[in-house]
From TrEMBL:
Keyword Methyltransferase: no
Matching InterPro entries: DinG/Rad3-like, Helic_SF1/SF2_ATP-bd_DinG/Rad3, Helicase-like_DEXD_c2, P-loop_NTPase, RAD3-like_helicase_DEAD
Keywords for the protein's UniProt record, in alphabetical order: ATP-binding, Hydrolase, Nucleotide-binding
Annotated spans, Disordered: 1-27
Keyword Transferase applies: no
Pfam families: DEAD_2
Organism: Nyctibius bracteatus
Basic and acidic residues bias: start-end ranges: 13-27
Biological processes annotated in GO: double-strand break repair involved in meiotic recombination; nucleotide-excision repair
Coiled coil: none
Domain Helicase ATP-binding, residue spans: 1-232
Protein name, per record: FANCJ protein
GO molecular function: ATP binding; DNA binding; DNA helicase activity; hydrolase activity, acting on acid anhydrides, in phosphorus-containing anhydrides
Length: 236
């Protein structure tokens, strides 16, 4: 049967001792941890949500954290290639006098899911379902998924959302006191290595060295630029 402490519970008291249940910092009610389920690929998330639909917990509030590559529906940004993040930020900041109307419609998407939950027809969904609904409602699926994390009991995401501290901070993921499940955890080592690695081409190094040469030759912050130029020279 359903457990007694998540949203699928009937709400009946079990008489069980809950004295060691963690309390919220402000003291009003018990702290129920979220489940963060990390996978290696987005395709695996699709498989897991499909299996979730077949369980007794298909109606538990959930969300899927994903990159703009998978969730952006803005016609210009989504077709821009590799600089989606930068273009999205520019639109949010209102640069060039333009803004993102899909971002301003996020509430339509989150309220739609909240409405489903209230009527008891909330079901596990895949990122494609959210994107499809976002296009229909003209609402941003990327930021909607982030907002849905607040009320979610299960949060699905790729490994690096849990392992990379910069991504955790930007996505406002707090793992203290939460439940973390890592699917196929033998892949964690490679993922952790990728999170602290960076790829650069020889042509990029040569271009950087030329720019640093100009800085040094024109007496612009030589103390900072000389060591950087030395690194570029040693790598090339």
């Amino acid at each position: 049967g359903p457990c007694t402490e998540c949203s699928c519970s009937s709400g009946k008291e079990t008489g069980k001792d809950t004295s060691n249940t963690k309390k919220k910092e402000n003291g009003d009610g018990p702290f129920i941890p979220k489940i963060f389920f990390g996978t290696r690929t987005h395709k695996q998330i699709s498989q897991i949500t499909r299996e979730l639909k077949r369980t007794a917990y298909f109606s538990v509030p959930m969300t899927i954290l994903s990159s703009r590559d998978y969730t952006c529906i803005h016609p210009v940004v989504s077709s821009s290639g590799s600089n989606r993040n930068e273009m999205c930020v520019e639109l949010l900041e209102g640069k060039h006098g333009k803004s993102c109307l899909y971002y301003h419609g996020v509430h339509k998407l989150t309220e739609h899911h909240a409405l489903q939950s209230a009527h008891g027809v909330y079901q596990a969904w895949d990122i494609e379902d959210l994107v499809s609904l976002g296009k229909k409602l003209r609402a941003c699926a990327y930021f909607a998924a982030r907002e849905l994390m607040v009320g979610a009991d299960i949060v699905f995401c790729p490994y690096n959302y849990l392992l990379d501290p910069q991504i955790r901070e930007s996505m406002e993921i707090k793992l203290k006191g939460q439940v973390v499940i890592l699917d196929e955890a033998h892949n964690i080592e490679d993922c952790a290595r990728e999170s602290v690695s960076y790829s650069v081409t020889e042509s990029q190094l040569r271009a950087a060295r030329e720019e640093l040469d100009l800085m040094v030759n024109n007496n612009i912050r030589q103390k900072d630029h000389k060591p950087l130029r030395a690194v570029c020279c040693s790598l090339t």
